[in-house]
């Protein structure tokens, strides 16, 4: 754990119980179930520590955050969230979305979540359109609004894409309904 590692296991061992189990080796890590169910195949042998090389790249982002004015970051975070909520509620009115995040900005961080019965395939359709979001069972579309990298127009464009996905039912393509381990 904590370092890059590789494992070879013959396919005859892919059903064995891992000696070390972890979040990355869970069958459905983002379902946040009680109990542990190992993933199928060799994936069950993944532990749960992010790789060091990936974390090393994170250091640059941390340095940028340390240089930025925190009050300005928070102000832009609020602006982006308010814009996202307003645009989504206007452009996607009548499409079945319900705000799941607190409406009150001081009670909300830089994430905005909306519930929708077809949240999973909608998020997959957004990802196919290069809008990076997140899905949380059972029906939450979650959007991280990062003030250092997102522009206001990016938020408007993302909502326009979502509105188009709803209007054309692009989310209903078979490939968008296939559940992946990471959502």
Structural notes for this entry:
By secondary structure, this protein is α+β, with helices and mostly antiparallel strands. The protein has 5 helices and 4 strands; from the N terminus they run H-H-E-E-H-E-E-H-H. It has helices at residues 52-67, 70-91, 119-128, 152-168, 174-177; strands at residues 98-99, 111-115, 134-136, 140-144. A 4-stranded antiparallel sheet has the order 1-2-4-3. Strand 3 (134-136) and strand 4 form a beta hairpin. The longest helix is centred in the middle third of the chain and has 22 residues, at 70-91. The radius of gyration is 19 Å and the shape is globular. It starts with 51 loop residues before the first helix and ends in a 6-residue tail after the last helix.
Sequence-ordered SSE layout with sheet pairings:
Elements: H1 52-67, H2 70-91, E1 98-99, E2 111-115, H3 119-128, E3 134-136, E4 140-144, H4 152-168, H5 174-177
Helix pairs in contact: 2-4
In a few lines, what is going on in this structure?
The protein has 183 residues and is α+β, with helices and mostly antiparallel strands.
Name the beta content range.
Answer: 5-15%
- Let me know the average pLDDT: 91
- In percent, how helical is the residue content? 25-40%
Written as H for each helix and E for each strand, in order along the chain, the element string is HHEEHEEHH
- What is the rounded distance between the termini? 23 Å
Count of beta strands: 4
Structural class: alpha+beta
How large is the count of helical segments? 5
């Amino acid at each position: 754990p904590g370092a890059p590692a590789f494992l070879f296991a013959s396919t005859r061992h892919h059903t064995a119980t891992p000696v070390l189990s972890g979040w990355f080796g869970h069958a459905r890590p983002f379902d946040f179930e009680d109990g542990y169910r190992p993933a199928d195949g060799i994936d069950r042998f993944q532990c749960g520590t992010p790789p060091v090389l990936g974390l090393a790249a994170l250091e640059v982002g941390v340095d940028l955050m340390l240089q930025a004015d925190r009050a300005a970051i928070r102000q832009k975070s609020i602006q982006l969230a308010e814009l996202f909520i307003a645009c989504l509620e206007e452009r996607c009115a009548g499409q079945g979305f319900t705000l799941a995040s607190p409406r009150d900005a001081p009670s909300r961080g830089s994430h905005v979540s909306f519930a929708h019965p077809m949240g999973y395939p909608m998020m997959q359709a957004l990802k196919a359109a290069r809008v990076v979001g997140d899905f949380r069972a059972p029906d939450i579309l979650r959007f991280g609004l990062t003030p250092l990298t997102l522009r206001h127009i990016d938020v408007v464009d993302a909502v326009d894409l979502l509105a188009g996905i709803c209007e054309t039912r692009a989310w209903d393509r078979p490939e968008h309904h296939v559940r992946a381990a990471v959502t």
